[in-house]
Amino acid sequence: MTQTNLESRNGKESEFSQWGKELERLAQEGVKKEITNHIVNGRPIFYSRLGVPIMELPDGRCFEYRPRKDRTREIIREVPCR
Description:
The protein has 2 helices and 4 strands. The protein has helices spanning 3-9, 15-40, and strands at 45-49, 52-56, 62-67, 73-79. The chain has a 4-stranded antiparallel sheet with strand order 1-2-3-4. Strand 2 (52-56) and strand 3 (62-67) form a beta hairpin. The radius of gyration is 20 Å and the shape is elongated.
């Protein structure tokens, strides 16, 4: 049995688990930077909240929308942001 396996069985965090957590932290940091860049450059961000497509504008307003086949969006209603 390797030292890493012993550590995880003894309640210590394995090296692989630590690496995974660091990778997750860096990915989240990168996503936050990209969202900020989109907003600063006047572009909306798109995400889903409980399966509902949301478009958040740089001015802070949020809308539920429906994508159309012609690649445009139909605004359904304004919704509270996060």
